[in-house]
Amino acid sequence: MQQTTQLAIFSVTMVLVAASYKAQASAIESKDVKRSLHHLIDK
């Protein structure tokens, strides 16, 4: 029973993370900040 609850919480968390990631990705694309992000990652 506890495992099912943990799995449900994990699933909800992943959905929230995915949603916020998508929102951030679209915001980054619209502002064209992706290039500066790549510069930070390359360093």
Care to describe what's here?
There is one protein chain. The protein has 43 residues and is mainly alpha-helical. It has a domain of 27 residues. Helices cover 91% and strands 0% of the residues. The chain has two helices and no strands. It is elongated, with a radius of gyration of 16 Å. The N and C termini lie far apart (46 Å). Keywords: Signal.
Order of helices and strands: HH
Number of E-state strands: 0
Q: Alpha-carbon distance between the termini?
A: 46 Å
Q: How does the major sheet shape up?
A: none
| Number of H/I helices | 2
Mean pLDDT: 82
Global shape? elongated
Structural class determined from secondary elements = mainly alpha
Low-confidence residue ranges: none
Please state the CA-atom Rg, rounded to the nearest Å.
16 Å
Work out the strand percent. under 5%
Helix content: over 70%
Distinctive features:
single chain, 43 residues, mainly alpha, 2 helices, elongated, signal
